[in-house]
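Changelog-adjacent note: as of this version, every example in the card shows the full chain rather than a window. The one below runs 195 residues end to end.
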Amino acid sequence: MTIDTKNNVKALAWEWIESLAVAFLLAMVIRTFFIQPFKIPSGSMRMTLIEGDRLFVNKLNYGASVPLTDYRLPGYGHPSRGDVLVFKYPVQRNKDFIKRLIAVGGETVEIKDGRVFINDREVVEGPIARIHYYNYGEYAQPGKKITVPKGYYFVMGDNSGSSHDSRYWGFVPEALIVGKAEVIFWPPNRIRLIK
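Full-length structure tokens:
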């Protein structure tokens, strides 16, 4: 092998290493600040999401958290009733949970006869109105109204009978929100926007 050939091989190797490093860095930036894939591990969101669904979570909407800090980038929107949120489980923060947003800070929540009431008015539109919610857990006892603290959210799974959610452990702090679940991308027969 000649010196020119060795130099060409080295240059090609460095070019590949540099390309891979840039691709890896770009992928980490996209995953950290823009969009992140998740896999559904349980049936707590059936029938909206089923076990094995893979989805993309939009972090830009509410503003991504900056790693290793308490700082959150500004988002272009705010969580609103009916959004499907991914968040760090408040009881064990190394786990990600996915649930539907029912109420925001300052609102009262009550479950009566399987229906959700916010500030004493029944939710009659959107996906929340189509789901029967059970009075399970400390925060959803019959006749009990819960006021969501400012800066927190009340969330429940669409499969109310099998969901470990705010009815049991309380509220999700805004700082623990990862992002909004936007689209199922796998398996192919389940590709759709999440509503």
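Structural remarks: Residues 3-33 form the longest helix (31 residues).
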